[in-house]
């Protein structure tokens, strides 16, 4: 698979006029034309002539961005992966889409999402083997970046919808600390859990995307402001010479494929060979209660969000969404509040662990992308970190015997995104050396 | 009733050494000794010698502050108005108590609160007539300031627990925008609604207390940062010469006593005579749904907070608290989430009304303090504004035929606390003129 020019490099080449935006856009459209028949990453794409006409100025000048189709765009249907919205064009762009355009970026098209970013899959195939899922719910965004169509795609994660497809497709997936990226104008799954994030082909590119598109002010939408990130040399950044990496043990490690377990060991060895100190991390039981609490928050909030859909268009909803809403409707207010309280408690208490290490190394998924398109994979290895709201980044490491990507995720402390991306860049270098 | 020296003046006299802290403290203790037998504002008081020994330095040097007994103090029992906690001394001060001490202020004593700041009344009597309630839940704090014992008392409001007792006792009660004052270390009634606020004898004093004790950083406890407030001349502040005051009509105005209605008219006339433009405000029905939504949030959150109390010490709880918890336990997660959503929606949408006027004028209570100590009064005229989280301030206006205080409240836009206090200072002057 021929990778197109990545985000940072493309921005730089365009800025210094070594690459014309129109030429770059033409390359991206050509790549899409080449693979889309099988890949099916997009629900709708801009025409090349429209992209070329719209090219603005700014740090994203001429950069085509793929946007998950739960994020509102005023010039494209925003179908939310649901037939209910098949003809729905929002009157306004989502805040993050406005940011992209104001910086000179272009909306290349809308990417396939599972229905309402929940379970029911879309048509996208895995770029490495079309018989396999690309993962979900940000299926098309992960696939579009992995196929070298665009240098940047927006996704969202409510349990494991960025980290998992990034890992299945072999690209970088980055979700910053909860609240750090604007989500106004994205169809919610669950306000307490939804993160907007980025698919790119390098850590550096993910950092650039975050810096340009992050929240720069507090809004009512549970937002926080994380200052611009910079990738720093480990020694300068940490105040100690080598990163300390904690390898997470989970109560469900028996779900890991042999190959995924092996990938974790390879990652561990690469990091260790590069001087990182590796230790093991087990968490007390109340942390793992976070996975059930995530299910409580998600189903309860989804039940309210889908109330109108259920009453007005039940025949257009999958049983997946109906079951989610029914599950949510069965919880009491007390159960919901306790789940919210646990979230606050863990967000605060996780900090003490990060006094002893700099990042957590964990599986991003159970293994390679499952065969078939009906099941986008198990998010369980991501759920706790989405619940807590800590930043996480998926990095590819190697390939399975089937030729599918395998990777890891690194998790940082809440609001310590800069440390996380610095360690992720260090890890990226380590993994490159072993290939 | 002889008023002791107010907060701003006392701070200034002590700073310029015209008043010794020990002398001021002795005056305050003497005043308490004089009235406490009947007033019963305090559950516990510091000894004069202890106060005099502790006197620190800083802008609150030598200033005695009365602290509502749901706010943790490490040197006094913090009983939360409940026999369950009758011997409980916290290991740490609440954040706001730490602030007071770090600025040189002193904890004069703990003031009577209703049980867990809910309905079941304490022993405090109204300083103007001991046969009447002082209001609740911040009963002792309002009474202590009104009696001239202390220049500043801390209270809390979850529905109407600052504005109402302030009005019943004839003092200033100020609750800033939701989240602007630290509440860590206060026993919660309902995290979505609890505000910590101030009782003082002038608007200027309330502003000083806020400026010294407000949140100066965002914490995880739903906090916001409101910069220091200053009372500005209306013409300079508003960009138009006269304040525009909206007189609120509510669906329950028939609950107002004739005297309270008359007090509102007097206030309106005073403001109008001083040049204010008066208009009438009616709000659409979805705003008034906020009152029921407040009851949903409060009961659901209280049910979780009191779960352990109910299981371990049911015999030590009033039926008021048991009923509140039982009510909360009956709500579904969906009902709770809808109440939260309405709160967010109204906090955002109320802003458009404030484009047309600068403050809302409303009743703080149904009328004068009710006779008897069993019922602390109806909070319904405060509930909507506590729910939305807008800043509110109670101002005394006149007296009832029984010689009890009557007043009004002014309400500002969320996060526009400075405009509100400026208009409140203007109104305070207007009301003084008519007396």
Describe the structure.
2 copies of one chain form a homodimer. The first copy, chain A, is of the alpha/beta class and 435 residues long. Chain A has 15 helices and 11 strands. The two termini of chain A are 16 Å apart. At the A-B interface, helix 10 and helix 13 of A face helix 10 and helix 13 of B.
Provide a count of the helices of chain A: 15
Give me the strand/helix succession of chain A: HHEHEHEHEHEEHHEHEHHHHEHEEH
Helix percentage range of chain A: 40-55%
Supply Rg of chain A.
Answer: 20 Å
Sequence stretches where pLDDT stays below 50 over 5 or more residues of chain A:
none
Q: What's the CATH C level of the largest domain in chain A?
A: Alpha Beta
Give the SSE map.
Two copies of one chain form a homodimer.
Chain A: H1 7-15, H2 21-39, E1 42-45, H3 48-54, E2 64-68, H4 95-102, E3 106-111, H5 139-146, E4 152-157, H6 163-169, E5 172-175, E6 195-200, H7 203-213, H8 234-238, E7 244-248, H9 258-273, E8 277-281, H10 285-305, H11 307-312, H12 319-329, H13 333-353, E9 359-362, H14 380-388, E10 392-399, E11 405-411, H15 417-434
Parallel strand pairs in A: 2-3, 2-4, 7-8, 7-9
Antiparallel strand pairs in A: 1-3, 4-6, 5-6, 5-10, 9-11, 10-11
Helix pairs in contact in A: 5-6, 9-15, 10-12, 10-13, 10-14
